[in-house]
Amino acid sequence: MGIVQIVAVIIILLLLVKPLGTYLYNVFSNEPNRTDRIFGGIERGIYKLGGLKKREGMSWKRYAISFLSTNIVLVAFGYLILRVQGGLPLNPNGIGEMEQTLTFNTVISFMTNTNLQHYSGETGLSYFSQMAVITMMMFTSAASGFSVAVAFVRGITGRKTLGNFFEDFVKAHTRVFIPLALLVTLLLVAQQVPQTLKPTLEVATLEGQTQQIAIGPVASLESIKHLGTNGGGFFGANSAHPFENPSPLTNVIEILSMWMLPAALPYMYGLFAKNKRQGWGIFTAMMVLFLLLLSLNFYAESKGNPAINAMGIDASQGSMEGKEVRFGIPQSSLFTTVTTAATTGSVNNMHDTQTPLGGITPLALMMLNNVFGGKGVGLINMLMYAILAVFLCGLMVGRTPEFLGRKIEAREMKLIAIAILIHPLIILAPTAASFLTDLGQGAISNAGYHGLTQVLYEYASSAANNGSGFEGLADNSTFWNMMTGLVMLLGRYVSMIAMLAVAGSLLRKQPVPETIGTFRTDNGLFTGILIGTVLIIGALTFLPVIVLGPIAEHLTLR
Question: Which stretches are transmembrane (predicted)?
Fold first, then answer.
């Protein structure tokens, strides 16, 4: 029955890919279409208000500067609000200002689409901060990433220009995230997810004591939290909290919300490339990797913890430690795999309590960072590996590699090397540094292999802009706030800017006519090569530390 639940959700996703991918193409192709009638008037008003009378195409440098400057302004705004939230309205519970390093970590986290939380939402933020900073950044960070992904696709598919960042940014809001968020919010409210500005409830318990129950504008945050692959929860328990995720139905709604847009982007890419097989090839590579890692997690969690099984305790339900009974192993495993594949970071079970082998799945997905990915990041990274695969195949036969009719040369490969190497560097180096300092070691609650995995997971989550955690770290300290904040910045912007430069470089090149010797990138052979390239590079960079962490821990339990 559990496998049937998983298969049903995957089938629903597959049915959504084509219509949603087509819609995204219509939105960002900048060609006249029927959506202009609905949203055109609103957008023209926004462009006029923002002084965007002429929305000419941008070079990659100008696009990157526009992207960065917009993010900087939003970070400054968010930092100010959190530092003075105690004196602002919509604060019925009297929550004070946030500490400086925690504020730095929080605004960086949400602007980079990471949503790593070193605070508990119901006690750390006012309603105004939840809406004006957290929810606002969930929209704007997702729209920023989406815009960069679309610009990258335009560049490598030979469009005349990368587009205009501000136009893409506005369209991502008006035509994608706001309409979908409104729809999902209404669905969640219908399923009893709170949406209110009333203060914390005070109720009498059966023992005659009083209990404080936090509520607030939860549904509106939940919708964009998943649609924008953000992941930051209104409550500290995130989507394991019954107010955020009360039933198996809301669980499926949240899974599809964070999965459907990243899954539709490869199909959109195929339409931009005027070759749908290109898009389906990328999608297939992502889905194969996804299913492999989902199978590992589901198998490991279903078998239970070997140490507990050895005690003779019934393991028929699997390893239920840290999981909600209303979801069970199937929906917990699917949620875990989707939230780390889509770099969302939302959790409906505690990843720290998963079996060592089950914990490899979220770790591996964040380390690969290209299996669907967040808003556009997964597509950019998978296409980066596709270009690398073409380059390697070209070297094997002594032919100048080509991708979508453009030669791949030294400049592109240097930029791709930067994007590929920065990811393991900002995971492994800080992990090692944290064990070498007293400030880092003081937060580690578990000695041995599991402690290594906790630290590794924290930095992998930060670098992949995921935001989930093993939650065994005492991470709300100056050291961890600053370290993870810097990792989040580097993980977000270095690779995105490098790949924008690749797109700009390819856009300037003259297309090369296809010949009988051209290596095709729209067939099953190339999909297999792409999967192999991802796995080989992932294993070379991360397998040693995986062996030292979860695999070593698993062997000690047997």
Answer: 6-28, 63-82, 127-153, 174-193, 252-272, 279-300, 376-395, 415-436, 486-507, 528-552
* Residue at 8: amino acid letter: A
**Tokens 């029927």, residue?**
34
Q: Within 10 Å of residue 137's Cβ, how many Cβ atoms?
A: 28
Read off the pLDDT of residues 301-352 as tens digits, 9 standing for 90 and up.
Answer: 999 888 787 787 877 788 998 999 999 999 999 999 999 999 999 999 999 9
Residue among 535, 533, 514 nearest 525 (CA)? 533
pLDDT for 57-88, tens place per residue?
899 999 999 999 999 999 999 999 999 999 99
Q: Which of 273, 278, 272 is nearest to 29 (CA)?
A: 272
What are the DSSP calls for 92-122, one per residue? TT---PPPHHHHHHHHHHHHTT----SS-HH
Paired residues of 403 in beta bridges: 406
- Say what the pTM is: 0.95
Contact (Cβ atoms closer than 8 angstroms) between residue 232 and residue 135: no
* Nearest alpha-carbon partner for 153 in 387, 342, 341: 387
If one counts every other C-beta atom within 10 angstroms of the C-beta of residue 46, the result is 17
Tokens of 360: 């490899």
Q: Strand locations in 343-420, DSSP E? A: 402-403, 406-407
